[in-house]
């Protein structure tokens, strides 16, 4: 918006309170004068818009003191987003474990819980238990259900973002087409007594990518994260937004056929996940007499320096690296991040061996291949950010202000 005086919104309307909030939240304009300059609005109109945001509790004066005004004259008081007026609930479901948290509006973890939650037990049982976790976490964090503005949920399957329903998930039996939003909202209401709140659902790799890109690589315009755990999936962030494809299926690289004869959980033979996921490595270890039943078991063996686990992880990395050569050639990302149970040195070494061998030098010249910074919290942070970006986007912010009577 900066440098575009008189910015108009839908229907030709001038920048509203939601647009001013977006400018402040992004750091592009943090004084009244800077807001006037960015939008072309008069001083009086900017003041009226800001008054709505102050009355809603969404803005506050910054603690840094006055700064020079871009319009000259007296120094201006800085403005900042007030993240104390609400909290977000977030959860990340894996196949046998889950993690949940209460987050501030700026992504700070206020309370957190991780435990066993088996996705094969079905959506009703799993989401009901999540509602109980959320109630306990709110108490632990010193907040009430009435302070929650939204819930974000990461799931290990493809999601139609319009409906919030998973679509033919290979490792989530019983979840296909289920009304996750409605059930989780009811569970939250039942356990906290608070009114229903918006629930956003997305694929776990998407939300991991979103969280990692926003916190560690905000200037990267093409970012790819590959999660290798029980299955294999990728999240893609382009120009700051998650790329989901037509119906949420983008990034499902675990089901690319790689010419093997192994049976995948999706029912097909030869999928990448059937030969290179944490689950596939665990099966090969178990067949050779090493106790391993899941990707998390492989992760523990790798941490302990188990030589056979390391060798199989490196081999799996080469398989994945072969596929990623095509991904990198197609998307030309600036960052390729490896995350999940297998995201250690052996696997990363295998990825690099095949990726740089198969991809054109032009595709990898400016590519950074890295591992996760946020670790097990990545999807939580991404889910929380998704909720905040949805609720405080200019148009939605305007709707919410009107609903509040502000």
Automatic annotation (TrEMBL):
One protein family per Pfam: ROK
Annotated family: Belongs to the ROK (NagC/XylR) family.
Name used for this protein in its record: ROK family protein
Organism: Streptomyces bangladeshensis
């Amino acid at each position: 918006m900066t440098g575009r005086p008189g910015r108009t919104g839908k229907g030709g309307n001038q920048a509203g309170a939601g647009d001013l909030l977006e400018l402040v939240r992004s750091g592009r304009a943090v004084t009244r004068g800077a807001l006037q300059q960015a939008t072309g609005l008069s001083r009086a109109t900017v003041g009226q818009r800001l008054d709505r945001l102050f009355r809603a509790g969404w803005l506050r004066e910054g603690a840094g003191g006055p700064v020079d005004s871009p319009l000259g004259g007296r120094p201006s008081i800085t403005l900042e987003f007030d993240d104390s007026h609400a909290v977000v609930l977030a959860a990340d479901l894996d196949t046998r474990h889950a993690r949940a948290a209460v987050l501030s509006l700026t992504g700070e973890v206020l309370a957190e819980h991780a435990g066993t939650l088996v996705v094969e037990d079905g959506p009703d049982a799993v989401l009901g238990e999540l509602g109980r976790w959320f109630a306990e976490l709110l108490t632990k964090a010193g907040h009430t259900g009435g302070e929650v503005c939204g819930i974000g949920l990461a799931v290990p399957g493809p999601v139609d973002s319009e409906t919030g329903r998973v679509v033919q998930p290979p490792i989530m039996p019983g979840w296909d087409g289920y009304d996750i939003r409605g059930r989780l909202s009811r569970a939250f209401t039942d356990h906290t007594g608070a009114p229903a709140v918006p629930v956003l659902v997305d694929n776990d790799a998407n939300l991991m990518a979103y969280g990692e890109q926003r916190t560690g690589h905000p200037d990267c315009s093409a970012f790819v994260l590959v999660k290798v755990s029980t299955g294999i999936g990728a999240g893609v962030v382009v120009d700051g937004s998650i790329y989901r494809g037509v119906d949420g299926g983008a990034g499902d690289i675990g089901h690319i056929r790689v010419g093997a004869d192994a049976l995948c959980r999706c029912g097909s033979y030869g999928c990448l996940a059937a030969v290179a996921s944490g689950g596939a490595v665990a099966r090969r270890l178990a067949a050779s007499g090493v106790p391993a039943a899941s990707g998390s078991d492989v992760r523990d063996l790798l941490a302990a320096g188990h030589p056979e686990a390391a060798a199989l992880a490196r081999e799996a990395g080469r398989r994945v690296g072969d596929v990623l050569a095509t991904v990198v050639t197609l998307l030309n990302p600036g960052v390729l991040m490896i995350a999940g149970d297998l995201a250690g040195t052996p696997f990363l070494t295998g990825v690099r061996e095949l990726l740089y061998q198969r991809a054109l030098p032009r595709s990898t010249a400016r590519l950074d291949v890295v591992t996760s910074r946020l670790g097990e919290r990545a999807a939580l942070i991404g889910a929380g950010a998704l909720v905040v970006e949805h609720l405080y986007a200019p148009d939605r912010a305007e709707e919410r202000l009107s609903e509040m009577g502000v």
